[in-house]
Amino acid sequence: MNKKPKTLPPTLRDKQRYIAFQVIGERTFKSGEIKKAIWEASLRVLGELGTAKAKIWFIRFDEKSQTGIVRCDRAYVEQVRFALTMLTQINGSKVIMRTLGVSGTIKRLKMKFLKEFDWK
Amino acid sequence: MTSLQFIEMDIRDAKAYELAEEWFDEVVFTKKLKLEKSPDYGKLKEELKELRERYKKVALLLITNKPSLIREVKNRNLKALIYVQGGSLKINRFALEIGVDALISPEFGRRDSGLDHVLARLAAKNDVAIGFSLAPLLRANPYERANILKFMMRNWRLIEKYKVPRFLTSSAESFWEVRAPRDLASFGIAIGMEIPQAKASISFYPRKILEKLEKR
Question: CATH number of A16-115: 3.40.50.1820, 3.30.70.3250, 3.90.660.20, 2.60.40.740?
């Protein structure tokens, strides 16, 4: 019994990019707060339609180094980056979101941009 | 990383400067100067000298509604970049006519873009840069944000058409308003620039303005 649809052939798959970001804040943040903040920022700046097109997806946030990964469509990388740039506060604490870099795979992203933050 | 040198043209706070210095290759410190009447030039020169020792590159942001004061300050040879805060149409026009170094956000506090084809042409002729600053956007509510972005998009169209010098800056007045170079570029892209144009707006055009300062 197969409950999932079959994985699409490569040409039909969504073309995705992964963005590594660092959070500089007044205090440290929990993963859940960051996830909510990114979604809200995206919905506010890009709108519902824009967020749908950007196919934004929160991957992971490392609470120790305050860095994380978010996935989006490759044509909307700049829009998502702008949405993160426009973020000024999370739950009343001031914050700066700094994008570290963009890559096509999580593996390369960790190698290139997240090594210095002790990611495995 | 790329070999491009990123330059932040307008940082107005000491703590913000420290952070920006980490992220950018060069940072210009801006002193805000609200003018009602002629300032005490001896004191101002002294202050600028101190700032120059601490920050190397210093700019003076004039906030005034008297055109004659802009001329006065510009002719004083203060060894600092002269910026003018845009807003009033009279000031925008005069700043472009007299040829200051940069006009920061001509749409500031306005209900229109503050720039038309005549002024854009004038800016290109007199080599006055137009600065797009991010900080007013960060402070605004969604309604104001949408409007400011709209005006910035319109200004960008004019600036591109008439080849006016331009730069992107955070205009940070506190630590929390500083943004990384690539994030500033994404702001440029959001108002309609191509990626190379956005990158040039934080490296090539600021460099040209700094060269003007070195010659002084």
Answer: 3.30.70.3250
Which of B137, B186, B191 is the best mutation test for A, with the most CBs of A within 10 A?
B186
CA distance B183 to chain A (A): 6
Q: What is the pTM of this model?
A: 0.91
Q: Do the domain assignments include residue B191?
A: yes
- Domain of B104? 7-214
B180 in reach of chain A (CB within 8 A): yes
Contact B190 A97 (CB under 8 A): no
Q: Please report the residues numbered 65 through 104 in chain B whose beta carbons come closer than 8 angstroms to any beta carbon of chain A.
A: none
CATH number, domain containing residue B56: 3.20.20.140
User: B107 in a domain, yes or no?
Assistant: yes
**B189 CB within 8 Å of a chain A CB:** yes
B1 located within any domain: no
Measured in angstroms, the CA of A97 and the nearest CA of chain B are apart by: 8
Per-residue pLDDT of chain B (216 residues; tens, 9 = 90+): 457 899 999 999 999 999 999 999 999 999 999 988 888 899 999 999 999 999 999 999 999 989 999 999 998 878 899 999 988 899 999 999 999 999 999 999 888 988 999 999 999 999 999 999 999 999 999 999 999 999 999 999 999 999 999 999 999 999 999 999 999 999 999 999 999 999 999 999 999 999 988 887
| Sequential DSSP letters for chain A | ---SPPPPPGGGS--EEEEEEEEEESS---HHHHHHHHHHHHHHHHHHHHHHHHT-EEEEEETTTTEEEEEEEGGGHHHHHHHHHT--EETTEEEEEEEEEEESSHHHHIIIIIGGGT--
